[in-house]
From TrEMBL:
Organism the protein comes from: Frankliniella occidentalis
Gene Ontology cellular-component terms listed: core mediator complex; mediator complex
Protein name: Mediator of RNA polymerase II transcription subunit 18
Entry superkingdom: Eukaryota
Gene3D superfamilies: Hypothetical Protein Pfu-838710-001
Subunit structure and binding partners: Component of the Mediator complex.
Length: 215
């Protein structure tokens, strides 16, 4: 009998078959100030001559009920590059550690797949919780990836041009995918984030605190 999906993923991590971890810092910047941030990033990042890569992605977030906690999966497709494969992604629970840890660390698996992945997940019993569009710019600095994205609420009854903006700001993310045990990359990320102050404050985001509010 085949293993449940959650068990297979857990076994893969314990066996170091897929050793990737994502190191992550997040922040936001108002629409009125985003051009200043883009200008700063052009000067700091590797793709200075060609400029940042623009992207427009559609992301769907699914959950499947497992024991003891639900399993979350994400499906992303590039709307501006329809020839690219779809991406199925598993993201583990964030590891915050002590207050001195520079970044969030979470387990991550990325798999290229076909457009039938949505039907496949539905057949497995997954339920789509929400979906959104992310439009913006991507920069590279060594192993670090920096995205500056506008989050747009999807509406199946309207065209993309009339979809609703979530806020009057851009989501800024600094991330690195690296093998386990390479925690030194977090210090490099903190140093890079300091160069973006005071335009944007990239920090560890405590999702549980956001969900429950201040004490």
């Amino acid at each position: 009998m085949a293993q449940p999906l959650s068990t297979a993923i857990d076994t893969a991590f314990k066996s170091n078959i897929v050793p990737d971890q994502e190191y992550l810092l997040q922040g936001s910047i108002l629409d009125t100030s985003v051009e200043h941030l883009l200008h700063r990033l052009r000067g700091l990042c590797d793709n200075v001559d060609s400029g940042p890569e623009q992207f427009q992605d559609h992301e769907m977030c699914f959950t499947i009920r497992t024991t003891p906690t639900p399993l979350s999966l994400r499906v992303r497709r590039a709307l501006d590059h329809t020839d690219m494969p779809w991406q199925l992604r598993y993201i583990g629970q964030p590891e915050y550690g002590d207050a001195k840890r520079p970044t969030i660390i979470r387990s991550s698996i990325d798999i290229g797949c076909s457009a039938s992945v949505v039907e496949f997940l539905t057949e497995l019993g997954c339920r789509m919780d929400f979906e959104y569009l992310a439009r913006g710019y991507m920069f590279r600095k060594g192993r670090m990836k920096i995205t500056v994205a506008k989050i747009v609420k999807t509406n199946p009854n309207k065209s993309q041009d009339s979809m609703q903006l979530i806020s009057e700001s851009y989501l800024v993310e600094l991330s690195v995918l690296a093998p386990r045990g390479q925690d030194a990359i977090a210090e490099d990320m903190r140093s890079f984030a300091e160069q973006l102050r005071p335009l944007v404050n990239l920090d560890k985001v405590d999702y549980k605190r956001l969900a429950h509010g201040p004490p």
